[in-house]
Protein 1
Amino acid sequence: MKKLWNMFLTFARIGGLTFGGGYAMLPMLQREVVGKNHWATEEELADYYAIGQCTPGIIAVNTATFVGYRQAGIIGGIFATLGVVFPSIVIITVIAACLTNFADLKVVQYAFEGIRVCVCVLIFNAVQKLWKKSVVDQPTTVIFLLVFLVSAGLAVGQSFYPDLFSVSPIVYVVVAGAAGVVLHGGQGKKEVGK
Amino acid sequence: MILVQLFGEFFKAGLFAIGGGLATLPFLQEIGQSTGWFTQQDLMDLIAISESTPGAIGVNAATYAGFHTYGCIGGIVATLGLIAPSIIIIILVSKVLETFKESRLVQDIFYGLRPASTGLIAAAGFSVVLATLIHVTDLPNDPAEAFNWFGIVLAAGIYAAIKKWNKHPVVYIAASAVIGIAAGYLHMFG
């Protein structure tokens, strides 16, 4: 029980002290998981992290589940995962509650007017970075363009014709996964997006 | 009942969102559109808050969206929905770690998934940019008024700043808030 509690607290510290998740979390994981608690070696952590990136879901959550499960079974995985999301739940709930109360203030509205512009740029920047890692050759370019054009096209179309059908992101993901197997199957192991 | 639906929707997002950071964005957008729980504008606020608070962006976003939909309990339920598939999948994968790592099939699937995930985020971002910088739905008579000129200039400035200094997003978000407040009181928004 003490170990589970320690695991919860350690991952709560990791979740509560890293901004931005994903890559920002790795140095903190190294310090807490490898250095302080010896729950994994440097290499094992790198493996967990790599697999966390190529399994569905949030990378930080996947890595936490991995470390917890390897150390203390299913219950360990659950404790570590709840730990890593606990600070988010508390912090975001407080902020969201405050915002709901202050949303009518002019100053808050103006601030968000500016912030929304910034979010546009942040998304653009994130897409640019993802592009470099995921669009590596001709087939991946085609997949990117098809998904982007169909999905963005439907979204724009809907703002003019609200009755236009829409396609769930799940459909794109499943079809693209199948396309990956068809287009890339039998080409041997290539170092894709490492 | 809405809590069950909330859990289910975020379970789907957790199961199909691949990659870190904004990978959940297209799913959140779809949830907002199909359920009416939150608008495009709520989505923008949600991203800003998720990026400027500690913790994984996807988790923060789920908590915020859940809270927005059904208060405190909603935030917790949405977050649990988002992480439930991770717990299940990782425990399954963990048993076959070596096989999974070396599997050609897994690599081939992800070869196709990664550009699709980028495409989905790009498309979600595109519609967000349209909504923020260009007023597409109610086009005014003068085409020049269709653009949020102040926003476009600010966006260009922020982009240049990111390329030059590469600071944490929270820095740019805070600066934009201050600029937004100043511009608001000076009546500069188009």
Protein 2
Amino acid sequence: MYAEVNPEICTGCKICEKVCPILSVKVFGEKKEKRAVVDLSTCVGCGACVERCDFEGAIILKTLEKSKIIGVDPKSVDEKEITELCLEAKIHPEQIVCFCTGTRANEVAAATLLGATSPEEISRKTGVRTGCKVECIEPILRLLKAAGIEPTPVEKGWQWYGITPTIWDIPEEVIQKYSARGFYFEEDKALLKKLLENVK
Amino acid sequence: MVVKLEKPVKPLPPKQSRYGPDPDHIKTRTCDLENIVSVRVREFFRDIPESIYPSERGIKAVREATVNALTNVDMSMIKPENSVNILGSHHGFLLAGGEPYAEMLKAIRDIIADKTGSENLRLKVGVGLRFRESDEYIRRFGLDEYFGKGKAKGVAPIDEGIPIETEIGTLYGIKRCYDADWIVHAHNSDVREIHFHRHVDKAVKPFGMSYARIETRSTYHQNLGPRSANFVARAIFNSELVQNKWTFATFLKPTPAGITGVDADNDLFALDERLTKENFRHYGKILSLLSQIDECIVVLDFQAPIPYVFSAGMIFANFSAASVDIFDLDYPLPGYTWYTEAFYGTDDRPLIPDTPPINPAIKAMVINYAWGGYPSVFWAKMIPTIVVGEHQADVFDKDPQNIEFMNHAVVAKDLQTAIEFTTRIADTDKILIFDGATEAINVSKPLAEELVEKVTEVDKEVEQKLIPKWCRQRGIKIEKQI
């Protein structure tokens, strides 16, 4: 799929630009002439622009004549380096981080080790964040951080705002305060430790 | 126990949506096939209260219940010059056809206006992974006209965000949810995603989900753990930002047997505890009964994505997760949850020993009617899957969340062929239909008879052993008769 703009309806409001996870939509022009333009070389048809556009028909999804496959082969990078990066982020290398594309942590790590320095670049290389656009931002930021990279959110964009806490960051007093209310922090930590101990 | 087997209860007709197939393509419903019967849920569990909707009193029963529930709720903090955001969730519109939830939202609006004199009342309805779904419901139920031009809007997790400082660090909400002086939490008590929230602070969940940005939702599903996930909701709810705008909550109360009322409170945690106890009794029993099924074919036939189609009030995701008791917090991972799915390796085998499988009772899955808009390939990989018609396959093929789904499923020309094929390969005549039939469960006759045989024992076990255990795990006081 790919996005296509109808310049007769588009008002250049920029919402599509603010939500595109891979920065494929840009608004060009002055005042009433402003219109969105899609970079078809990078658009993967995730539909974020279509789903948030306030003007019915201004941007639509169309089917590609020939589908394209994107991805990074984790085998193209030293496995030891991938494993170290994933463990630093406390993520199992084979763990799925994007349920829509089936992308695993090792692929995101490989993209990072091959030079990607932002979630947008990782998405362009691997496809993560182009399915539901919701669930996989934090493992990406964790893997970037583990590589010593602290990306800056896109200026005036809504793509993402920042890295958030993990179970490893929960303060002890919070754990003590709420563990009797059904929040099994310690037990879940033990489960996640077990996962990481199983890394080959 | 004598339980009446009845003619199948007709599900709601298919609905037009950008997320599903054209309703004209849905020629046959599963309940119309031979040998399908229906059991009223209250025939199984007679302690479930009678529904107020559907009932002969119609939709006005929901308005009356809302008025009654809000009688003693304090709204004095809202002044006539103040703005109020009534926060809702798309999911309420899937209950009993959606009209009860829409009516509750309208009633809340009217009651606030009457009691406080405020006229600046807006409706902000959150979504899951289908960002226009709430807008579709707002139009369908006339909420845009009811609230006034531009005052009823769907909000999505990729909309502009607002940082929220919490006791575990910064999380992010949807800015438009919090752009009023006050907020009202207008939700429902359906258990829905037990596999995710594990019924810990269930009533609080929308603060970490429907009203939250992608960063918070990703934290929930990827950064915490299968039993700690919903803490993001509590953390946000307890934040200064939310507490400074907080007024009260109003919840529509479904059970597996229909809508039974409305509850409201200024104290969200008190409300949560009441609803949790009721849900353990009603939903706990029906899911425990369904968990007794040793083998079956499931047929999905409802206007929702795969996990959210439901049968006797339980969504398919819960049934697929029920290889263990998903209410029981001693089990870290249900058979399905995103933590479970994430922990399957490249060879599609679990990375941790003892990971429970997808409910092994499900021998095959037929999809007669379902939407896209939820990453569902895990089910297709784990369960032999037959999709009815190219129109339904096309829904998945064009869905960015299901790009590989049809690599793992086959297409049957029609429903009858699909059922004949699956009953043959699965060697079972037990069919469980997820068609959202209100108040009842549509199943094949052999499965109905099996459920009838097991219901008394299940009722006793849930009442005497499981409810006390589930309550104890969550720090909920157990009275002799809850």
